[in-house]
Amino acid sequence: MLLTNNLFYFASFFIFIFGLIIGSFLNVVIYRLPEGKSLLFPASSCPRCKTKIKFYDNIPIVSYIILRGKCRDCGQKIPIIYPAIELLSAILFYLLFIKLFYSVFFYFNITNYNLVFFKDFLTGRLFLLIAYGFFIFILIPISFIDFFHRIIPDSLNIMLIIAGFLFNIFLLHKSYLFPFMGFIAGGLFFYLIAVFYDLIRKKEGLGGGDIKLIAGIGAFLGIKGVIFTIFAGSFFGLSGFILGGLYLYIKDRTKIISNQSDKEKLIQNDSNYNSGNHSDDISNTNALAHNLNSIGNINSKINLENLELNLNKADENFISSKIPFGPFLSMAAILYIFYGAYLINIYIAFIRR
Questions:
Q1: In the 8-state DSSP scheme, what is residue 61?
Q2: Residues 6+ apart with CB under 8 A from 123
Q3: Do residues 131 and 171 make contact, with C-beta atoms less than 8 angstroms apart?
Q4: Burial 29-65 (b: 16+ CB within 10 A, else e)
Q5: C-alpha angle 8-12-13 in degrees, rounded to nearest 5
Q6: What is each CA distance from 346 to 231, 236, 340, 342, in whole angstroms?
Q7: Cα three-residue angle 155-157-163, rounded to 5 degrees
Q8: What contacts 24+ positions apart, CB below 8 Å, involve 316-321?
Q9: What CA–CA distance (Å, rounded) separates 317 from 83?
Q10: Is the peptide bond before 324 cis (omega within 30 degrees of 0)?
């Protein structure tokens, strides 16, 4: 056998390590690009002590575990998001490898004698791994930058659009209409939504970054993929908005209940004083406590009213705030790569019943 289990394990290890390395670079992109800093210079350093991070302290995942999530020099905590992005990049790239090549290792009997017959098939799978791997590695920084900063850099969107055309036409050998139709369908659809929303609400609903992003996704996935991404991304976005609102509601109401409980305790203490449960020997002390309790009751009521007012404003701000749509579109686009055709077939079979 040309492709053995040992070769599969070696390829899996190489793919996973490569994903970790790319993920480490994506951390640099996510951190520096919104601030307009160079992605190559200067070398990575600790934000607090400014000490340059040595190469053996910059090994993805491993260095974080060895250093226990802290800077070697000053002890500053390293945010968990850094190893999380490295791990996410590696896992997604490895899953893509499994999707494209698992059958090659375990279903097809490829030997030295029939390798020529499978040459085009293997080459096509390799090109898909390169194209979709690049696609995923662009969507990851787009998602996190949009989540943290509410922006999508034009440099990433333009790179996504250009790469979509180049990969599809020259690497995957598809017609130029494939990326062009997806680009137009996605970009034009979101542009019309943005214009309509602006006319109705007199404010921006979809940012230009989201319009360029869906156009870039369409350039990669074509018109079928962009339609799937729009619907699935909208579902993910709506779900995220509902869950976020529910979390905020529960958190805010918990604060109100806690303050109401504190207020009731102060009133109860004041009632105990009025009932005469005190000694004449410490009347002055109790009188002082009574005054303090009265003041506390007034302050508690004012604070509770202010808290409710602030929480209502927070709820209104959450509802009217700009929700980052990039992460949800990216999730939907990546889902299409792995299960899009399968989910579309299930949907078509369902509506035909």
A1: T
A2: none
A3: yes
A4: bbbebbeeeeeeeeeeebeeeeeebeeebeebbebbe
A5: 120
A6: 15, 19, 10, 6
A7: 100
A8: 318/244, 318/245, 318/248, 319/245
A9: 32
A10: no
Of 271, 268, 256, 141, whose CA–CA distance to 209 is shortest?
Answer: 141
Which residue is listed with tokens 């340059």? Answer: 52
Contact of 151 with 328, CB cutoff 8 Å: no
Contacts of 152 (CB under 8 A, 6+ apart): 142, 145, 146, 207, 209, 210, 212, 213, 326
Smallest CA-to-CA distance from 143 within 89, 179, 185 is with 89
pLDDT tens-digit profile, the chain (353 residues): 455 667 888 899 999 999 999 999 999 999 999 998 889 888 888 888 888 888 888 899 999 999 999 988 888 899 999 999 999 999 999 999 999 988 877 777 665 556 677 788 889 999 999 999 999 999 999 999 999 999 999 999 999 999 999 999 999 999 999 999 999 999 999 999 888 888 887 777 678 899 999 999 999 999 999 999 999 999 999 998 888 778 877 877 777 677 666 656 655 655 555 555 544 444 554 554 554 455 455 554 545 455 444 545 444 444 445 678 999 999 999 999 999 989 988 988 888 87
Look up residue 26 and give its two tokens.
Answer: 């994506």
> C-alpha 132: how far from its chain's center?
18
- Tell me the residue ranges of DSSP E strands in 179-334: none
Q: Dihedral of CA 12/13/18/24: which sign?
A: positive
How many CB atoms are located within 10 Å of the residue 122 CB? 16
Q: Are 183 and 218 in contact (CB under 8 A)?
A: yes
Looking up tokens 């070769």, which residue turns up? 7
Rounded CA gap, 211 and 213, in Å? Answer: 5
3: left (phi over 0), alpha (psi -120 to 50) or beta: beta
Rounded Cα–Cα distance for residues 341 and 338 (Å): 8
* 239: its two tokens: 């779900």
Helix/strand number for the chain, H first, E second: 9, 0
Token pair of 312 as six digits:
């209502």
